[in-house]
């Protein structure tokens, strides 16, 4: 919970002072009573003393005052609501190392399945595009609300070549920053980048991530694979097995530099869970709703209850 006018909460500091003043008044009242009646005669003079009931109305009034001060500070509660217009670019690494089968059925295949799950969960109004990258990025589908087109584009991914993550981020940023909503303003956008390691060619990925951050386009990176991944390279004399271990360090730096978040997964199930989470996160936005009325109503109810108790027991409000 947050407050639109938090300085008003300083008024809560007055409540301990009011409690102190009330306690002082009660001590003076008891001293005045003892001046006229000795302690042994008190039960006969005032046989029905209010005891704890004397303080109940004031306690209720103090709580009511605290609640009303909180209400005056205009409390707000955040709630997730579907976005009206947003865009996400799925940037999938299809370099040679993505052929590794340490993730079922392969790193590339797992990425395709997870992206399909993302499309199934993301709200219909969110535009989703697909970019494949190895030695250079290729936009297979521009961001569109027709998710069937993006789903079809996923079948075009083919492994081969090196990894140019920086070029992929720059291309995705350029496409997303050009999108406009019905009001002519740039739509909120994000990049979901799936890879298994650091960049081996092209532009500096950290500089590209910072450029995306300057345009308020966070990059959410997903590092997919394990430390024992291998691929087979065909050669003239014989095939060679080459290790392609997961290297998530640079992907983490990219996410941090862009204002996104980094994920590292080693199996298909966890990858699908991450993409489902991202679909919900990127398809909704946090909206603050004022709940002032609830606090104000509660404070007024407490004032009413305190007043009724005071009138019922003592025939006066205070």
Topology summary:
Blueprint: E1 2-3, H1 14-36, H2 42-45, H3 56-72, E2 75-82, E3 86-93, H4 107-121, E4 126-133, E5 137-144, H5 147-153, H6 165-177, E6 189-195, H7 205-214, E7 219-224, E8 230-233, E9 240-243, H8 249-258, E10 262-265, H9 268-282, E11 284-290, H10 292-314
Parallel strand pairs: 3-4, 3-6, 6-7, 7-10
Antiparallel strand pairs: 1-2, 2-11, 4-5, 8-9
Model description:
- There is one protein chain.
- This protein is 43% helix and 21% strand.
- The protein is α/β, with parallel strands linked by helices and 318 residues long.
- It folds into two domains: 103 residues, no CATH class; 199 residues, Rossmann fold, CATH 3.40.50.
- The strands form three sheets. Strands 5-4-3-6-7-10 form a six-stranded mixed β-sheet, sandwiched between helices. A three-stranded antiparallel β-sheet has the order 1-2-11. The protein has a two-stranded antiparallel ribbon with strand order 8-9.
- The chain is elongated.
N to C succession of SSEs: EHHHEEHEEHHEHEEEHEHEH
Give the neighbour order of strands across the main sheet. 5-4-3-6-7-10
**CATH class membership of the largest domain:** Alpha Beta
By DSSP (H or I, 4+ residues per run), the number of helices equals: 10
CATH architecture of the largest domain: 3-Layer(aba) Sandwich
What's the end-to-end separation, in Å? 34 Å
Q: Give a quick account of the main beta sheet: strands, pairing sense, barrel closure.
A: 6 strands, mixed
């Amino acid at each position: 919970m947050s407050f639109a006018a938090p300085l008003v909460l300083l008024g809560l500091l007055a409540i301990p002072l009011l409690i102190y003043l009330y306690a002082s008044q009660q001590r003076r009242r008891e001293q005045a009573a003892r001046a006229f009646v000795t302690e042994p005669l008190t039960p006969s003079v005032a046989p029905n003393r209010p005891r704890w009931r004397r303080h109940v109305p004031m306690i209720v009034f103090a709580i009511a005052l605290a609640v009303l001060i909180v209400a005056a500070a205009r409390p707000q509660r955040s709630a997730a609501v579907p976005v009206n217009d947003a865009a996400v670019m799925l940037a999938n690494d299809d370099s040679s190392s993505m052929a590794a089968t340490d993730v079922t059925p392969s790193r590339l295949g797992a990425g395709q399945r997870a992206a399909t799950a993302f499309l199934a969960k993301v709200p219909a109004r969110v535009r989703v595009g697909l970019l494949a990258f190895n030695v250079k990025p290729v936009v297979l589908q521009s961001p569109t609300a027709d998710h069937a087109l993006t789903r079809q584009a996923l079948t075009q991914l083919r492994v081969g070549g090196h990894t140019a993550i920086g070029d992929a981020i720059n291309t995705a940023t350029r496409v997303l920053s050009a999108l406009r909503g019905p009001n002519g303003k740039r739509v909120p956008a994000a990049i979901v980048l799936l890879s298994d390691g650091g960049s081996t060619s092209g532009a500096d990925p950290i500089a590209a991530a910072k450029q995306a951050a300057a345009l308020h386009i966070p990059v959410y990176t997903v590092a997919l694979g394990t430390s024992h991944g291998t691929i087979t390279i065909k050669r003239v004399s014989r095939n060679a097995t080459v290790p392609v271990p997961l290297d998530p360090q640079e992907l983490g730096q990219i996410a941090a530099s862009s204002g996104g978040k980094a994920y590292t997964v080693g199996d298909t199930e966890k990858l699908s869970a991450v993409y489902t989470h991202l679909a919900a996160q990127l398809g909704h936005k946090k909206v603050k709703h004022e709940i002032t009325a609830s606090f104000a109503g509660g404070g007024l109810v407490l004032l009413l209850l305190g007043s009724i108790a005071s009138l019922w027991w003592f025939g006066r409000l205070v």
